[in-house]
Amino acid sequence: MEQYNIHKAKTHLSSLVEKAALGEAFIIAKAGKPMVQVIPFEAHKPIYKRVGFLKGQISVPADFNLMGQDEIAEIFEA
């Protein structure tokens, strides 16, 4: 990975940004000490592409709302 001092980075910023955009990361240093790493920006990709992504892959029982009602009643009425 190439390293550029701050002065050279400021002077050649446009070309360095183009390099980074093409996937070539680089480091900007001050007095030879690495300060920052410039890497290409990648837009955040959503985890789920759409609502209903599990449609057809799972099923909910018809008595879902009644499941465990006896146990729940027992807990709250005890």
Q: Termini, distance in Å? A: 68 Å
CATH topology category name of one domain: YefM-like fold
- Amount of beta strand: 15-25%
Which segments are poorly predicted (pLDDT under 50) over 5 or more consecutive residues?
none
Strand order of the largest sheet: 1-2-3
Summarize the structure in words.
The chain is of the alpha+beta class. The chain has a domain at 2-38: YefM-like fold, CATH 3.40.1620. The protein has three helices and three strands, in the order βααββα. A three-stranded mixed sheet has the order 1-2-3. Strand 2 (26-30) and strand 3 (33-38) form a beta hairpin. The longest helix is centred in the N-terminal third of the chain and has 9 residues, at 13-21.
List its salient traits.
alpha+beta; single chain; 3-stranded mixed β-sheet; 78 residues; YefM-like fold
Task: Tell me briefly what this model is.
The chain has 78 residues and is of the alpha+beta class. It has 3 helices and 3 strands; from the N terminus they run βααββα.
